[in-house]
Specification:
The chain is built from eight helices and two strands, in the order H-E-E-H-H-H-H-H-H-H. The chain is mainly alpha-helical and 227 residues long. It has one domain: Arp2/3 complex 21 kDa subunit ARPC3. The chain has a two-stranded antiparallel sheet. The longest helix is centred in the middle third of the chain and has 28 residues.
Length: 227
């Protein structure tokens, strides 16, 4: 087998781009609380589950170490986006531009929301990847659905809990706080379940094309490790 350090994967960058893109879009969309049937959730909840799906694909095919890099890239991009929005919002608007309040309402991210987003993302994504990698070894690479759904159950629970308490505790009425948190969690898990055929399709395609099916048997799972 070729040295892992010099291997070039054709589709790794593509999957990483989708992972980061859905993360950024979902964080912007999270500024709106919406009703979807019986569910109350933030707009980001419609797209954020896709980051877990692509995170599962990355870990399943390329391993935890490659996913760790993608998670850090997403974190960096998220912080850069938030910084740009805040800086632009703080700059004086043109005298004849009437939309400053609208801009601040949607993109004028508060420090609390940024902190909630970053903390929840960091904890949830790394736990999701860790659980999937460990379950892959325990299941000997079989029952892919059990580890994609199982890791999401754990990762999304941590993500939703951290985000809701940092972002909305004391801000939303208790009944709405509980409704948004519970609805968001179950919706995100449901998306993972619904998209399981897509996950199988992508994983099988990538394993065949990349000739890679990584098992994290000797992996250092420290999120801050550089190797």
């Amino acid at each position: 087998m070729a040295d892992e350090r010099i291997r070039v994967f054709k589709y790794l960058d593509v999957v990483t781009v989708f992972f980061v893109t859905f993360l950024l879009i979902s964080n912007v969309a999270a500024s709106k609380i919406l009703v979807l049937g019986p569910l109350s959730l933030d707009g980001g909840g419609l797209l954020f589950p896709l980051t877990y799906i692509f995170g599962d694909i990355l870990t399943e095919v390329y391993g935890y170490k490659k996913t760790r890099k993608a998670i850090w890239l997403g974190l960096g991009a998220n912080l850069l986006m938030a910084a740009v929005f805040v800086i632009i919002g703080a700059m004086p608007p043109a005298p004849d531009w009437p939309n400053q309040d609208a801009y601040m309402a949607i993109l004028g991210l508060s420090a609390r929301i940024v902190l909630a987003s970053v903390a929840a993302y960091f904890c949830g994504e790394f736990i999701n990847s860790y659980v999937l990698a460990k379950m892959k070894i325990l299941t000997k690479g079989k029952l892919l659905w059990s580890r994609t759904i199982g890791s999401t159950l754990v990762g999304e629970l941590v993500d939703t809990t951290v985000f809701m308490f940092i972002a909305f505790w004391g801000v939303l009425p208790l009944d709405l706080f509980i409704a948004v948190g519970v609805s968001g969690y179950f919706f995100k898990v449901a998306i993972e379940v619904i998209f399981t055929p897509f996950t199988y399709l992508m994983v099988n395609f990538l394993k065949k094309k990349e000739k890679e099916d990584y098992y994290d048997r000797k992996t250092n799972f420290n999120p801050f490790a550089v190797k």
